[in-house]
Each structure stands twice: as C-alpha cells, then as structure tokens.
Amino acid sequence: MQYLGPMVESLRLLGTVHAPGVVQYEVTDSDAWDEQVCSYCNGRQMVVVAAQLDGNYKITLEGTRWLRCVSCRRGAVVEGGVVYPAGKPFRTPLGLPAADAAIWEEARSCLGVGATVAAVMLCRKILFHVAVENGLPAKNEKDRAPSYAQAVRHLQDAGLVTKRMLPWVDRIKDVGNDANHEVTPISVDQALDVAAFTEQILVLAYELDALMNDPQRAENGVP
C-alpha cells in the first residue's frame, strides 16, 4: 500500500496489510460489510475492502468505500452515497433475440445512470422491433417505417397488447414522442413506467414461449 502515499492515512482496510496510518478491522466487524445492489449479479451483500475515514477515523456515508460482491466477486465503489457502476433496474426476460437483448440491456444501463431520455427512446425502439418480429412489415409501400399507431395496432392484433394494457401503451406513446421530437425533460418515474411496460411486452413476446419450450425450467419456476 506504500504507493498510495498520503492517501493511506485516510483509508481503513480489510485484511492483513500492515502499513503506517492504516487502521485494520476483521470480517466480524460490522464495518466490514455493506448492503448495496451489485450491478453485475444483483446480489445485495458486499464486503468492504477499504473505506475512507473522516478526521475522527470514522467511516462516513459521504466518504469513499471500495466494495466487492460476495456472490460474483466483482468490484464496486461508493462515492458520496452513489454506487459505481450503477445498478440496473428490472431484469432481462428469457428468450430474447440478440438484438432485443442488447437494446434492453442498454436501456437498463441508461436507467441506472439516470439517462431517462435515452432509456425511453430505446424502449420505444424495442416496441417497434417486437412488432416487426411479430409480422409487421418493416417498410410500407412508400418504403417508410411503420408509425407508432401502426405498431400498436399490430401488437393488439397479435394478442400482445390487450385492451387493459392500452393506457400503458398511450403512456409510452406520449413520453416517447417527447423523447424523439422535442427537447423535453423526462422524469425518472416516467422512464421507469415506460421501462416497466416494455419489460412486460418482452415477457409476453418471448419469455412465455421460452418457458413453454423448457418444461423443466417452467416446472421449477426458474425466472
């Protein structure tokens, strides 16, 4: 730890390293553990590898903490109460085609860092793609992509959107239009609503079939 220089004086380390200015603690110490959501595996238990101390040699929420997930053993940093890399809300439904999975993961990453406009635009793109994957022509007779209304009608005809889901569809339409055509801020709650609906569309479009095609997984209730 000598290469850290003066920084060592404000660090508290878990382990057996002996260096001037370093205060150690054991795994039985409450400061050795932290409850944070791992952005890689969604585990919630972290071991504190190192923590920055205040002037009284106490760990504070405003200080920096270096963590390691006990489940996947990947690392994370907490700075000012914010975890990096950021956790991803929602989950990835089973059976997604590669393109849909990539876009959905990007949307989740955007939500994790507060990029709400980008997240909504990606969710809207997923909706169009699911419609095309379920039989909607990608281009009409004028070589133009289908409109949002055409995509929604097609998803209704395909049975993926029911009448009870239409208010949520309208919510995606309104927020999505702002994201694509206006410089309008999108709140976190709006983006989460759009993403929640998008996740359900992916479940209905892909995950249910994936579960049916894997009887053992469906019987065991594996998500």
Defining key terms:
seven-stranded mixed β-sheet, disordered C terminus, 6 helices, 2 domains, disordered N terminus, 223 residues, Four Helix Bundle (Hemerythrin (Met), subunit A), alpha+beta
In the CATH hierarchy, the architecture of the largest domain is Up-down Bundle
What would you report as the Rg, rounded to the nearest angstrom? 23 Å
Q: Mean pLDDT, nearest integer?
A: 79
Oligomeric state as shown: single chain
The helix fraction, in percent, is 40-55%
The proportion of strand residues reads 5-15%
Helices and strands, in order, run as EEEEEEEHHHHHH
Total separate domains: 2
Low-confidence stretches: 1-11, 218-223
Please give the alpha-carbon distance between the first and last residues: 43 Å
Largest sheet: 7 strands, mixed
CATH class of the largest domain: Mainly Alpha
CATH homologous group name of the largest domain: Nucleotidyltransferases  domain 2
By CATH, the topology of the largest domain is Four Helix Bundle (Hemerythrin (Met), subunit A)
Number of helices: 6
Structural class: alpha+beta
